[in-house]
Amino acid sequence: MNILERLVYDRLKKSPALKSLARDFYQSLFDLVPVKKVWSKNPITVREGYFFGFHDHCPFSADNTMLLANRYDIPLRMPEKGESVEVGYFSGSNWETFTPLCKSRAWNWHQGCKLQWRGNLNQLVFNDFAHGKTISRIYCIDTGTLRDLPEAISSISGDGQYGIGYSFARVQKCMPGYGYPYETDEPDLNNPVTSESGIYRINLDSGKIDQLVSIAGLVELAPEESMNGAKHFVSHALFSPSGNRFTFMHRWFKGDVRNRYSRLISMDIQGKDLHIFPARDMVSHVAWRNNEEILAYCRVNNRDAYYLFTDQTGSFKIIGPDVLLSDGHPSVSPDERFVITDTYPDRTRRISLLKYDMEKEELEKLAYLIHPRKFQSSNPYHNWRCDLHPRWDRYGEAVCFDSAHTGTRSLCTMKV
């Protein structure tokens, strides 16, 4: 992002509709300029017709031999009721052979079906729609059996004992494209504030559900003036590596769903020791570095940047203040030293894949890719953009990301 682009961004960041119009016009001018469409430091393996989803879960099995994936067969549009993705994994040399396992009818382009491994077990967990509601399912690779859980999940603890979740129906109404296309009889779904919905914990063995905090409870927690008259929801819950704590976003808006406020909160697995991080108004993407530190792109003291927070304290510092200049989807390497992240399309629709060394404070560009204009989301209700959402493998030797640089949404891997 150059100086002019940063100036326009800062002026329009509170007017998302105008920001989108300015972006579209600016990019259309540069469509006339010929640019190299693909560059990468190392070869990219492309698996067309597959994707994983968000950046916050590792798709690689504990032994790094299997790579989770969703296979889709619908055109480039929003998923409709009853349409499914095929859930499975790639294995073999360079993860080239796909094994289909089952299907999910609860998915979106940004987060897939929240597909993830259950700890170190040969079991995968994903969301689905059945019996008139959104649920989650556990598939055991060793036995080929499938077991239902009563609610959808967002994140699984590292020991595979618990899941945490929230109302994806409420998310779909408040943040279209991150929920699922189903009407439900969920109570208080249309109410701005509710005590019926919030963050819940699921015991993955017994299926027991415990609500940890309600939306009404969050609204009462250090209320802000912008909350008055707003509709509230929660999203993006994510366990720490140990599973003892987790983070989530408390969000609210008035009118345009894009004009939302966010704050980042952590709590323990019992729903105690809540901590509100010192970010204000905007929090976009989060990654745990370890059990104490959280990396987030957010706004602190009216400055948007990558911040490294220490949980349950007011301590923080900016990461890459002179080189990491725009929002992205971070993932921290297993040795806690490197951050892999991406950018949104620039004026030439070029998306960068970046690696930042937190020890040496150095940035390395791994690739840049140009996505066709058709992958640009025109509005919140036509939300099929393809972000890279990069994710480390278990050894810190390769990354997995989604890309549409071939003209087709694809699951990609690259050695780093």
UniProtKB/TrEMBL annotation:
<protein>
    <submittedName>
        <fullName>Uncharacterized protein</fullName>
    </submittedName>
</protein>
<dbReference type="InterPro" id="IPR015943">
    <property type="entry name" value="WD40/YVTN_repeat-like_dom_sf"/>
</dbReference>
